[in-house]
Amino acid sequence: MTKVAIVTGGTRGIGEAISLALKKMGYVVAANYAGNDEKARAFSERTGIDSFRWDVGDHQACLDGCAAVADRLGSVDIVVNNAGITRDGVLAKMSFDDWNEVMRINLGGCFNMAKATFDGMRQRGWGRFVNIGSVNGQAGQYGQVNYAAAKSGIHGFTKALAQEGAKYGITVNAIAPGYVDTDMVAAVPAQVLEKIVAKIPVGRLGHAGEIARGVAFLCSEEAGFVTGSTMSINGGQHMY
Ligand code: CAA
């Protein structure tokens, strides 16, 4: 039977490239999005991929959203936890809300999505989770205590859930992208970004498709022996 994949934040940026890559592999894809109905509609019309709106940071919304995907497309076999936000600022200027929102969405979203789907995968004896971390979760980044902590948390979450999933045929892996040419990175002040790119050995920003290729591999049948790993795709910025 055709496998069903959910990609959170799957209608834009890296998420869009992942949704397209999984569709190309023959999976039925549901692209989750948080708020931009217009962009999501345009994405669905352009790609033929169904989009579903819910906030991954909201526990009940995840349970309901995943149930809606299962009703329309079938049981969920693959989850790519890609949805994430930034609220950058030095600690002195960072509000509790900036901290909390990033933790709630970036890290809480992984927990919520796993709670909604892990049990079904366990019963069917097959599953794939790919959690999108970040080079900044591995190396830290000035002005990102919230984001770096959440992304670092994703790497720990991945290794813990991988141990629980292994005996049920569920693999759990992370990808740690570097700086990729998306809207999120475009929001970094130009002079700051210039300095960051100067330190990337490959000498450029990554492309969303280069992250999606890694996700596609980890979601494949052939990757069944890969679990608890982190694949760094960062142009050599941080070799870890
Ligand atoms: N290391 C040391 N010092 C630094 C620094 C760094 N990396 N970056 C800035 N500083 C210093 C500056 O030199 C400056 O020092 P002085 O006051 O002595 O001149 C001081 O910190 C303040 O810098 P800013 O003027 O930049 O401060 P700001 O308050 O206007 O902005 C900031 C701070 C919001 C953190 C801004 O620097 C910024 O946006 N930085 C980029 C953060 C970043 O890389 N975010 C990644 C987003 S993309 C993403 O997250 C995707 C992914 O997974 C990779």
Automatic annotation (TrEMBL):
<dbReference type="InterPro" id="IPR057326">
    <property type="entry name" value="KR_dom"/>
</dbReference>
<protein>
    <submittedName>
        <fullName>Acetoacetyl-CoA reductase</fullName>
        <ecNumber>1.1.1.36</ecNumber>
    </submittedName>
</protein>
<dbReference type="InterPro" id="IPR002347">
    <property type="entry name" value="SDR_fam"/>
</dbReference>
<dbReference type="GO" id="GO:0032787">
    <property type="term" value="P:monocarboxylic acid metabolic process"/>
</dbReference>
<dbReference type="InterPro" id="IPR036291">
    <property type="entry name" value="NAD(P)-bd_dom_sf"/>
</dbReference>
<dbReference type="InterPro" id="IPR020904">
    <property type="entry name" value="Sc_DH/Rdtase_CS"/>
</dbReference>
<dbReference type="InterPro" id="IPR011283">
    <property type="entry name" value="Acetoacetyl-CoA_reductase"/>
</dbReference>
<dbReference type="Pfam" id="PF13561">
    <property type="entry name" value="adh_short_C2"/>
</dbReference>
<dbReference type="GO" id="GO:0042619">
    <property type="term" value="P:poly-hydroxybutyrate biosynthetic process"/>
</dbReference>
<dbReference type="GO" id="GO:0005737">
    <property type="term" value="C:cytoplasm"/>
</dbReference>
<feature type="domain" description="Ketoreductase">
    <location>
        <begin position="3"/>
        <end position="178"/>
    </location>
</feature>
<dbReference type="GO" id="GO:0018454">
    <property type="term" value="F:acetoacetyl-CoA reductase activity"/>
</dbReference>
<dbReference type="InterPro" id="IPR050259">
    <property type="entry name" value="SDR"/>
</dbReference>
<comment type="similarity">
    <text>Belongs to the short-chain dehydrogenases/reductases (SDR) family.</text>
</comment>
<keyword id="KW-0560">Oxidoreductase</keyword>
